[in-house]
C-alpha cells in the first residue's frame, strides 16, 4: 500500500467578500461575492439576507459568466448601418449624451409626449418614473403590463397588496398550500425555501398548472388544469365552500366589505356602494334593522336582506350578492369539470381539504392585539391555508377576474393576514384608495402634472381627452383597458408605428428586448421598428436604447447607452418602489460596484441622472443650474421624496426612528457593512391583521411608510368596476365608445366572475393551447449568453402531450408546424405525458436571433430554438365589424400571452426552426472557443 | 462505447503481436535467420505499435509510466507491467536467436506464457467492467486470446516459408487457429447479442432508485449538447452499418484467411497468398474490434434514454 | 493506492431528497463555480458560445418522466409524474473506478471515504469513467485529467470558511433544501436518520458498487381520482338545509 496523497484541506478561498444584491433575475437575493486577485472567485448566497437566507439558484451562481460575458457592450455606440443591421460606431459618452440631449431637448420644449420612455426589467422605477415625470411626458411605464399586472392589480384592488414583492404565504404555519400558474417566475428562492419548509412540516402542497414541472413536480397533488379556466375552478371551490357554510363569517363581516350595502335599483347609482353624507359606506344593523355607517363600532352588520335606504333607494349587502352569484349552477363542479379538465369529485375533495385545513386545523397564537376600532383581541386566530399565483393565471384576457377570484377565495376562508395564511410585506398593505391616480397632463417645458401610473377609481381617472382619445401612446387608462395600472408597454411600438393616437419623435427604452422575446408578433415588431416613410426617414424617428448586453434590440436602436453588469453598479431596491421586505420586517437593499468596469460603460441610472441634469429637469439641477446629483449613488443617498424620506430607509441621519431622517453621507457604507441590506422588524403584536391592526399602523407611520394610519377593509366587491359598468350603460359624462360598451358590461363584474379567454372564443380550428414557462436556470433572454447556463438549456423543444403525439404520429425529435390565427412556426418536438392533454408548451426565450448575444451563427438557440411570440399578435383577429381588439385583458390591458391557440401538423425535419431570421451583425463579435475559468487559482 | 481508433489499433496490433510471440516462443516455425529476424521484428513491432497507440488515448501520456504501479488491482496496470516484462523476455529470446542463432525454450516458453497473459490483461481491461455487460458477460478473454493467437499463427505461417518449407505444421496451426478464432468469435457474438443492458438487472428504474414508481423515461437531459459521457459511452451505431461491418469482419477476418489457408495447405507453392491473408485478417479483426466497442452499451446510457 | 480501504472511519456522503428537488440546477452551477477555481484543474468549457457547448461538470440534473402502469380517467391530466434527478459521485464503498485505475490517481480516502483523483498522477486514460456505472466522472478536455465530485474536500475541512459553511457547495446553495451532507457510517447522524425515516435508496445496487450516497424517494402523490377523503358537508352544520339557513344560524352565533 502506498500512502494517500497529502491534499490541502484548508486552501485559501478569497481575498475579500463583498456583499451585494443579485440581479440574475428579479428576486434580489443577497450574495457574497468572493474576490481573489481583483477577480470574482465565486458567488454564494448571503446567509443573513432576508430574501434567500443563504441559498442561491443556478442563475445566481452563474453570475460569474454573466459578469464576464462576451456579449457585454463596451462603449456608447451610434448606428451606422440601416436599423436592424447591427452596424454601429463606438463613440464617447460626451458625444452620446450630447446626442441624446439634442434629440430630447426640442421634444421637451415643444411637445413632451413625443418622448416615449419605457423601461423593461427595471428595478429603479422610482427614479425612472420620476425622471419621466420631470421631463413631462405621459408616456412612461415599466414592463408590468406585459408581465403580471393582473396579479398585481387584482391584489391591490381586492386586498390592498399583492403576491410576491408585496406579500407571501405564512410558510411556517400553513397546512395546505395551493400554487397556481407559477414556473420560477418570481420569488423563486423564497418559494423553494417555503416549499421545503411546508414539506418538513408535513403540510400538503397542491400545484395547479397545465404542466407538471418544477414546483408542480414536487407538489403532493397536481391539478393539470386546462389553460384559462383557473377562474372557473376557483369559483367552483368557492361555491362548494359557501354551499356548505365553510366560510369565516366573522372575519368577512369584520375585515371585508361583505356587509356593505350595494344600491340595487336600476339607474345612475346601480351597483355603487350606498354611503352616508360623509361618504362612509352603509350597513344594515341586524339587531336593530337600522341602516348605519360601517364605521360604527357597535353595529352588528347584516350580510343578507334587502333594505330601503333613507333616500328611498333599495340596497343589498355585498355578501348576499356574492352568494347569489357564486352559488349559481354556472360554477357547480359538475358544470365546470369538462372545461377545466378536472373531475368534479376532485374539485369537491379539494374544497373539503381547504375547509378542513382552514377550520379544523386553525392556528392560534397567544398574542394579544388591538384592532382599528379599538377592540382588544386576546389571540391571533388563523386559517392555515395559503395560496400563491403568478403569470399562469394572470396572462389571460380573463386574468384580472381570475386573480380577483383567487383573492376572494382567500377572504372567504379568512386567511388573508391571519396566521397560516397570506401575509403582506411592508410597505403593504395599503388601501387601493391611497395609491396615486394616473396622470397625463402635459405642459411643454414643464413636468407632468403627477405620477404616470396608478389605480383609477372610476372613469374620472382615465387618461383620455374629452373626445375619448388616448393621452398615452400605449393607450393605458383608456376604455380599452381602464385599469391598466402598470401601463401597456407591449402596445407602444405598434401604436407609435401606426401613429395612433399620435406619432412620437423619440423612443427611449431600457433593458427590454422588444425586438425579440419581449414582444408579441416579433417579426412585425422588427418591421415596425425599422419601417420607413416615403422619404426614407424612419416612422419612429429616433430610438435610444440602454442595455448591458448585445441583445436583439440593440440592432434596432440609433443610439446605445451601454449599461454596466450588476456587479459594477449602484442600485437601490427601495421601499418607494419594489423592496425586499418580508412579512415580519421592512427591508431594502443596495447594489454597489464590487468590481470596477473594464469597459467604457456607465450604470443606466447614472447616465439618466446626467441626462436629467443636462436637460435641466427640475429636481435634477440645483438652483444654479448645476447637477443636483453626481451619479446614482449620490441620488440614492441625498434624494428626498418627502422630507426625511428617501430611496433608502436605513441609517438615515438623526436616526431616532427607523425609516425617517435627513440624508446621511455615510449611508451606503453602513449598508455595505451590513451586507447590502437593511431590515426593520415589525413588532410581535403587529405581525398579523395588518390593515386593521393598530400597532402595525402606528409602526408603519413611524417608519415613514405612510404619514397617517391607513386602516381599511378588503374588497370582495370592487366598486370602481361598477363605475365603469355604469358608464357603459350610458351614465356619466365620460362614455366609452359604442363598440366597447357590451364588452365592458360583460367583463367588469364588480364581483369575481369568469368568462372564456377571448382568443379561444374567437378562433375556430385551433384546438390546442400553447404556453411558455421560464426554466429555473434561465432568466428571459439573459441566460443564453451565459456559458454555463446555456449548456443546460441550449434549445427548447415543443413539449407535446402523449395523446396528441399519438393522434399525429409524432415521436421525440420530429418536427411540426405550429399554426395560430396569426402565424406559423416550424419547431422540433419532444413527447411529454405529465401535461394537460390539450396543451403544448416550451421554455421561454431560449430561441435567439442569429448574431445576437455574442453567440456563433450556428448556435442551437438560433438553429433549433424558437419563440412562440411569432404566433401571438398584439391584436385579436378581426371581429364581424372589422374592428380588432387588443390581445389583452379588457380591464387591465395585461398581455394575454397564454390565450394562444394553435393547431399542429407534422413537418419535414429541420434544418432550422422557422421563421429563420437573417443574422444581425454582432457589435461585440463572438465569444471565445474555450474557457477554463479559475485556472490561475488551481 | 466510442470506438476510438487508438484503442482499436492498440488491441488489434498488440493482440497479433503477442500471439505471434506466443507461437515463436513455443518453437513453432523454422529456426533460420531471416525468419527469426522478420518474425521477431514483426511480433515486437506489432506489440510496440499497439502499445504506443494506446498512449494516444491518454490525456497526459507523459505520465504513462505511472500506470505500472497498480498491478495489484488494475488490469490496465497489469497489462502495462506484463507487456514490458514480455517484451523484455521475448526481446532477449529474439536477440539470442537472431544474432547468436540460439533459440532457447528457457526463454521461449516463459515468453509465450507471458504473451498470452498480456492478451488476457488487455481483454480484462474491458472484460472486468461490469458497467458494460456486453464485455463482462460473454467470454471476452478467450475471444481476445483466440484472435491474437490466430493472427499470430497466420503471420507465422506466412513468414515460415522464408526460411523453411512451405506447408507443414505452421500452416496447419494457422488454419486450425483461424477456425478456432472464427468459432470463438461466433460464440462471443452470439452471447454478446443476447447480453442486454439489463443483464445485471439494471434499468432506467433502478438507475434512479425508483423501480416501483412506474416506467421511467428521460424527459430532459442535463445538457443540450453531447458531453464527455455521451461521446465516450453513449455511442449510437446504426443497425445497417453494424450489419455491414459484421459481414465485413466475417469475410476479412475469418472467411478469406481461411480460404487462403486452405489453398496454401492444398497447394504449398501458393504460400505467398498467406502474405495477403495477414493484412486482410487484420482489417477484419479491426472491423470486429470497432464493433466490439461501438456495439457495447454502458449502463450510464440508462440515464440518457437508453433501455435494454 | 487503487486498492480500496477495508473500511473507512467515516462515510461522508450526500442524501438527496427527490421529494423536494425541483430541478432548478442550482447545485449544478454552484458546484461548477466552486470547483472550477478549487481542487485540481479548472472545469473547462469547449465551444462555450458555439454550436455544441460542452464543459466539465461534476454534478448534473436529469429530468425523468415516470408513468405508473395503471392509467386514470376523467381528468385532462395523466398520472405521469416528473422526477428531477441530481447525480454526482456516490463515493461507493466498492468503487470500481478506483480499482481499475492504473496509476493510483483514483483513491478512496480511508479517513472519510471520499473518492478522489490525484490529478498529478492521472494519465487521463478514462478507464475509471468507463468503470463507473453512474456517469459520475468526466474527463476535462483542456487538462486531460479525470474530474469528479470531491464532496468539496477543500471546503468541508477548510479553516478559512466559517464552520456553518463547511459543507459541499451544492448543499450550501440548494434552495429547496433537498441536499443533505453527513456521515452515513454514523447511525445517529442526521443523514442516517433521514435515510432511515424516509426509506433512502441506493442507485443500481445490482452493480455491486455499494454507494454511500442515498436518494430519498418522492412521497406518494395524492391520486386525483381518489374519492372524497373528507366529507365537506359533514364539516358544515349537521342540519344544513341550505346556504341561507346556515347563514342565519351562523349570524345568531356571532351575536
Q: How many domains, in number, for the residues of chain C?
A: 1
Mean pLDDT of chain A: 95
Largest sheet of chain C: 3 strands, mixed
Strand content of chain A: 15-25%
What is the molecular shape of chain A?
globular
Helix content of chain A: 10-25%
Intertermini distance of chain C? 82 Å
Number of strands of chain C: 11
Order of helices and strands of chain C: EHEEEEHEEHEEHHEHEHH
Share of β-strand residues of chain C = 15-25%
Order of strands in the sheet with most strands of chain C: 10-1-11
Low-confidence stretches of chain C: none
Radius of gyration from the alpha-carbon trace of chain A, in angstroms: 27 Å
Relevant terms:
heterotrimer; B: 308 residues; mainly alpha; Formate dehydrogenase/DMSO reductase fold; 11 helices; globular; C: 255 residues; alpha+beta; two-stranded antiparallel ribbon; 11 strands
Question: Please, could you describe this protein's structure?
Answer:
The complex is a heterotrimer of chains A (938), B (308) and C (255). Chain A is α/β, with parallel strands linked by helices. Among the domains of chain A are: 1-56, ADC-like domains (N-terminal domain of TfIIb); 760-907, Beta Barrel (Barwin-like endoglucanases). Helices cover 25% and strands 16% of the residues of chain A. Chain A starts with 15 loop residues before the first strand and ends in a 7-residue tail after the last strand. Chain C is of the alpha+beta class and 255 residues long. Chain C has a single domain (12-216), classed as Alpha-Beta Plaits. Helices cover 21% and strands 18% of the residues of chain C. Chain C is elongated. Chain C starts with 11 loop residues before the first strand and ends with a helix. Chains in contact: A-B, A-C, B-C. Chain A binds chain B through residues 2, 790-795, 830, 832, 860, and chain B through 69, 219-220, 222-225. Strand 35 (930-931) of chain A pairs antiparallel with strand 2 of chain C, so a sheet runs across the interface.
Amino acid at each position: 500500500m502506498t500512502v494517500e496523497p497529502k491534499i490541502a484541506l484548508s486552501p485559501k478561498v478569497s481575498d475579500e467578500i463583498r456583499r451585494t444584491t443579485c440581479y440574475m433575475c428579479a428576486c434580489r437575493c443577497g450574495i457574497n461575492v468572493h474576490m481573489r486577485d481583483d477577480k470574482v472567485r465565486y458567488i454564494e448566497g448571503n446567509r443573513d439576507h432576508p430574501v434567500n437566507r443563504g441559498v442561491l439558484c443556478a442563475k445566481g451562481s452563474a453570475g460569474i459568466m454573466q459578469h464576464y460575458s462576451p456579449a457585454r457592450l463596451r462603449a456608447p455606440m451610434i448606428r451606422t448601418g440601416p436599423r436592424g443591421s447591427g452596424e454601429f460606431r463606438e463613440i464617447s459618452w460626451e458625444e452620446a449624451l450630447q446626442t441624446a440631449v439634442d434629440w430630447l431637448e426640442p421634444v421637451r420644449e415643444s411637445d413632451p409626449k413625443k418622448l416615449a420612455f419605457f423601461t423593461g426589467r427595471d428595478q429603479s422605477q422610482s427614479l425612472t418614473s420620476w425622471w419621466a415625470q420631470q421631463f413631462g411626458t405621459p408616456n412612461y411605464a415599466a414592463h408590468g403590463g406585459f408581465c403580471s399586472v393582473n396579479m398585481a392589480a387584482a391584489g391591490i384592488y381586492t386586498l390592498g397588496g399583492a403576491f410576491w414583492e408585496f406579500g407571501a404565504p405564512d410558510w411556517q404555519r400553513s397546512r395546505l398550500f395551493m400554487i397556481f400558474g407559477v414556473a420560477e417566475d418570481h420569488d423563486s428562492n423564497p418559494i423553494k425555501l417555503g416549499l421545503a419548509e411546508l414539506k418538513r412540516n408535513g403540510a400538503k402542497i397542491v400545484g395547479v398548472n397545465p404542466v407538471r414541472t418544477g414546483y408542480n413536480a414536487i407538489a403532493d397533488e397536481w391539478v393539470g388544469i386546462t389553460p384559462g379556466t383557473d377562474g372557473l375552478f376557483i369559483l367552483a371551490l368557492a361555491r362548494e365552500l359557501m354551499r356548505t357554510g365553510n366560510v369565516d363569517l366573522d372575519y368577512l363581516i369584520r375585515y371585508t366589505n361583505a356587509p356593505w350595502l350595494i344600491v340595487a335599483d336600476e339607474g345612475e347609482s346601480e351597483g355603487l356602494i350606498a354611503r352616508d353624507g360623509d361618504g362612509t359606506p352603509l350597513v344594515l344593523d341586524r339587531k336593530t334593522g337600522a341602516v348605519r355607517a360601517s364605521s360604527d363600532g357597535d353595529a352588528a352588520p347584516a350580510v343578507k336582506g334587502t333594505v330601503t335606504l333613507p333616500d328611498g333607494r333599495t340596497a343589498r349587502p355585498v355578501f348576499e350578492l356574492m352568494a347569489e352569484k357564486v352559488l349559481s349552477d354556472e360554477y357547480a363542479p359538475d358544470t365546470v369539470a369538462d372545461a377545466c379538465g378536472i373531475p368534479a369529485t376532485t374539485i369537491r375533495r379539494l374544497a373539503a381539504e381547504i375547509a378542513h385545513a382552514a377550520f379544523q386545523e386553525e392556528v392560534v397564537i397567544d398574542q394579544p392585539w388591538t384592532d382599528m376600532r379599538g377592540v382588544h383581541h386576546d389571540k391571533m386566530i388563523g386559517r392555515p391555508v395559503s395560496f400563491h399565483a403568478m403569470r399562469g393565471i394572470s396572462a389571460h384576457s380573463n386574468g384580472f377576474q381570475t386573480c380577483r377570484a383567487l383573492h376572494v377565495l382567500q377572504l372567504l376562508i379568512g386567511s388573508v393576514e391571519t396566521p397560516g395564511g397570506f401575509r403582506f410585506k411592508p410597505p403593504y398593505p395599503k388601501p387601493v384608495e391611497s395609491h396615486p391616480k394616473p396622470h397625463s397632463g402635459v405642459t411643454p417645458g414643464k413636468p407632468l402634472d403627477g405620477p404616470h401610473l396608478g389605480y383609477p377609481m372610476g372613469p374620472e381617472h382615465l387618461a383620455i381627452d374629452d373626445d375619448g382619445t388616448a393621452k398615452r401612446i400605449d393607450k393605458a387608462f383608456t376604455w380599452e383597458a381602464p385599469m391598466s395600472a402598470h401601463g401597456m408597454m407591449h402596445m407602444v411600438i405598434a401604436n407609435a408605428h401606426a401613429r395612433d393616437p399620435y406619432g412620437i419623435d423619440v423612443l427611449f427604452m431600457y433593458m427590454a428586448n422588444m425586438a425579440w422575446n419581449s414582444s408579441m408578433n416579433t417579426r412585425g415588431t422588427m418591421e415596425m421598428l425599422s419601417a420607413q416613410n416615403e422619404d426614407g426617414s424612419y416612422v419612429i424617428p429616433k430610438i435610444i436604447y440602454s442595455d448591458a448586453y448585445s441583445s436583439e434590440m440593440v440592432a434596432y436602436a440609433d443610439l446605445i447607452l451601454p449599461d454596466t453588469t450588476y456587479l459594477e453598479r449602484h442600485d437601490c431596491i427601495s421601499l418607494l418602489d419594489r423592496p425586499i421586505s418580508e412579512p415580519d420586517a421592512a427591508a431594502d437593499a443596495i447594489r454597489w460596484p464590487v468590481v470596477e468596469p473594464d469597459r467604457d460603460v456607465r450604470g443606466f441610472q447614472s447616465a439618466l441622472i446626467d441626462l436629467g441634469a443636462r436637460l435641466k429637469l427640475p429636481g435634477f439641477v440645483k438652483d444654479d443650474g448645476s447637477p443636483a446629483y453626481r451619479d446614482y449613488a449620490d441620488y440614492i443617498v441625498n434624494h428626498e421624496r418627502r422630507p426625511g424620506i428617501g430611496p433608502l430607509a436605513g441609517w438615515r441621519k438623526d436616526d431616532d426612528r427607523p425609516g425617517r431622517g435627513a440624508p446621511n453621507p455615510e449611508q451606503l457604507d453602513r449598508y455595505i457593512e451590513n451586507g447590502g441590506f437593511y431590515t426593520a422588524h415589525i413588532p410581535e403584536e403587529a405581525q398579523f391583521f395588518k390593515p386593521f391592526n393598530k400597532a402595525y399602523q402606528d409602526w408603519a407611520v413611524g417608519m415613514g411608510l405612510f404619514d397617517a394610519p391607513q386602516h381599511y377593509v378588503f374588497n370582495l366587491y370592487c366598486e370602481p368596476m361598477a363605475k365603469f359598468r355604469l358608464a357603459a350603460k350610458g351614465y356619466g359624462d365620460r362614455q366609452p365608445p359604442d363598440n366597447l360598451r357590451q364588452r365592458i358590461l360583460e367583463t367588469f363584474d364588480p364581483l369575481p366572475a369568469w368568462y372564456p379567454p377571448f382568443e379561444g372564443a374567437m378562433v375556430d380550428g385551433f384546438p390546442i393551447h400553447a404556453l411558455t414557462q421560464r426554466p429555473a436556470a434561465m432568466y428571459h433572454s439573459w441566460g443564453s449568453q451565459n456559458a454555463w447556463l446555456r449548456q443546460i438549456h441550449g434549445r427548447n423543444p415543443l413539449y407535446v402531450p402523449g395523446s396528441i403525439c399519438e393522434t399525429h404520429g409524432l415521436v421525440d425529435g420530429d418536427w411540426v408546424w405550429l399554426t395560430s390565427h396569426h402565424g406559423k412556426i416550424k419547431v422540433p418536438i419532444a413527447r411529454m405525458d405529465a401535461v394537460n392533454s390539450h396543451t403544448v408548451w416550451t421554455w421561454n426565450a431560449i430561441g435567439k436571433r442569429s448574431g445576437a448575444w455574442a453567440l456563433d451563427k450556428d448556435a442551437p438557440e438560433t438553429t433549433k430554438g424558437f419563440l412562440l411570440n411569432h404566433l401571438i399578435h398584439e391584436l385579436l383577429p378581426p371581429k364581424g365589424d372589422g374592428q380588432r381588439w387588443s390581445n389583452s385583458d379588457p380591464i387591465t390591458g395585461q398581455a394575454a400571452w397564454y390565450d394562444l391557440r394553435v393547431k399542429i401538423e407534422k413537418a419535414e425535419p429541420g434544418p432550422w426552426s422557422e421563421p429563420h431570421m437573417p443574422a444581425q451583425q454582432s457589435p461585440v463579435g463572438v465569444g471565445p472557443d474555450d474557457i477554463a475559468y479559475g485556472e490561475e487559482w488551481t | 462505447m466510442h470506438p476510438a481508433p487508438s484503442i482499436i489499433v492498440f488491441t488489434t496490433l498488440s493482440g497479433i503481436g503477442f500471439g505471434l510471440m506466443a507461437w515463436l516462443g513455443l518453437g513453432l516455425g523454422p529456426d533460420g535467420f531471416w525468419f527469426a529476424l522478420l518474425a521477431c521484428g514483426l511480433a515486437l513491432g506489432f506489440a510496440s505499435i499497439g502499445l504506443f497507440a494506446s498512449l494516444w488515448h491518454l490525456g497526459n501520456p507523459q505520465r504513462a509510466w505511472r500506470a505500472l504501479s497498480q498491478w495489484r488491482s488494475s488490469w490496465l496496470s497489469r497489462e502495462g507491467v506484463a507487456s514490458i516484462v514480455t517484451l523484455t523476455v521475448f526481446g532477449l529470446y529474439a536477440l539470442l536467436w537472431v544474432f547468436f542463432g540460439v533459440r532457447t525454450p528457457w526463454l521461449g516458453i516463459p515468453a509465450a506464457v507471458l504473451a498470452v497473459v498480456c492478451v488476457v490483461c488487455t481483454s480484462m481491461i474491458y472484460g472486468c467492467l461490469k458497467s458494460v455487460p456486453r464485455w463482462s458477460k460473454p467470454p471476452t478473454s478467450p475471444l481476445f486470446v483466440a484472435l491474437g493467437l490466430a493472427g499470430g499463427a497466420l503471420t507465422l505461417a506466412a513468414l515460415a516459408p522464408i526460411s523453411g518449407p512451405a506447408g507443414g505444421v505452421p500452416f496447419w496451426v494457422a488454419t486450425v487457429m483461424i477456425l478456432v478464432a472464427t468459432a470463438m468469435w461466433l460464440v462471443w457474438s452470439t452471447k454478446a447479442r443476447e447480453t442486454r443492458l439489463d443483464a445485471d438487472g439494471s434499468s432506467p428504474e433502478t438507475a434512479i432508485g425508483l423501480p416501483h414508481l412506474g416506467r421511467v423515461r428521460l424527459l430532459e437531459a442535463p445538457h443540450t449538447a453531447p458531453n464527455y459521457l455521451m461521446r465516450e459511452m453513449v455511442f449510437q451505431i446504426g443497425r445497417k452499418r453494424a450489419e455491414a461491418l459484421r459481414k465485413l469482419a466475417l469475410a476479412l477476418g475469418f472467411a478469406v484467411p481461411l480460404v487462403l489457408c486452405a489453398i496454401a495447405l492444398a497447394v504449398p507453392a501458393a504460400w505467398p497468398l498467406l502474405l495477403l491473408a495477414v493484412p486482410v485478417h487484420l482489417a477484419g479483426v479491426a472491423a470486429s474490434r470497432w464493433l466490439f466497442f461501438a456495439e457495447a452499451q454502458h449502463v450510464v446510457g440508462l440515464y440518457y434514454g437508453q433501455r435494454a | 493506492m487503487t486498492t480500496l480501504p477495508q473500511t473507512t472511519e467515516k462515510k461522508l456522503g450526500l442524501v438527496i431528497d427527490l421529494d423536494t428537488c425541483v430541478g432548478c440546477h442550482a447545485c449544478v452551477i454552484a458546484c461548477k463555480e466552486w470547483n472550477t477555481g478549487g481542487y485540481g484543474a479548472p472545469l473547462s468549457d469547449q465551444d462555450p458560445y458555439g454550436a455544441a457547448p460542452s464543459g466539465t461538470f461534476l454534478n448534473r440534473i436529469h429530468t425523468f418522466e415516470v408513468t405508473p402502469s395503471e392509467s386514470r380517467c376523467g381528468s385532462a391530466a395523466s398520472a405521469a409524474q416528473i422526477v428531477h434527478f441530481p447525480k454526482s459521485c456516490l463515493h461507493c464503498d466498492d468503487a470500481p473506478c478506483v480499482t481499475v485505475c492504473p496509476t493510483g490517481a483514483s483513491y478512496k480516502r480511508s479517513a472519510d471515504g471520499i473518492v478522489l483523483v490525484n490529478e498529478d498522477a492521472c494519465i487521463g486514460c478514462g478507464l475509471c469513467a468507463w468503470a463507473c456505472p453512474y456517469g459520475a466522472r468526466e474527463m476535462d478536455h483542456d487538462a486531460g485529467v479525470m474530474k469528479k465530485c470531491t464532496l468539496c474536500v477543500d471546503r468541508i475541512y477548510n479553516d478559512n470558511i466559517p464552520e456553518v459553511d463547511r459543507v459541499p457547495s451544492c448543499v450550501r446553495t440548494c434552495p429547496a433544501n433537498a441536499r443533505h451532507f453527513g456521515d452515513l457510517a454514523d447511525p445517529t447522524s442526521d443523514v442516517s436518520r433521514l435515510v432511515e425515516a424516509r426509506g433512502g435508496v441506493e442507485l443500481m445496487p445490482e452493480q455491486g458498487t455499494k454507494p454511500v450516497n442515498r436518494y430519498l424517494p418522492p412521497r406518494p402523490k395524492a391520486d386525483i381520482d381518489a374519492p372524497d377523503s373528507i366529507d365537506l358537508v359533514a364539516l358544515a352544520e349537521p342540519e344544513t338545509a341550505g346556504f341561507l339557513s346556515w347563514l342565519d344560524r351562523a349570524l345568531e352565533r356571532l351575536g
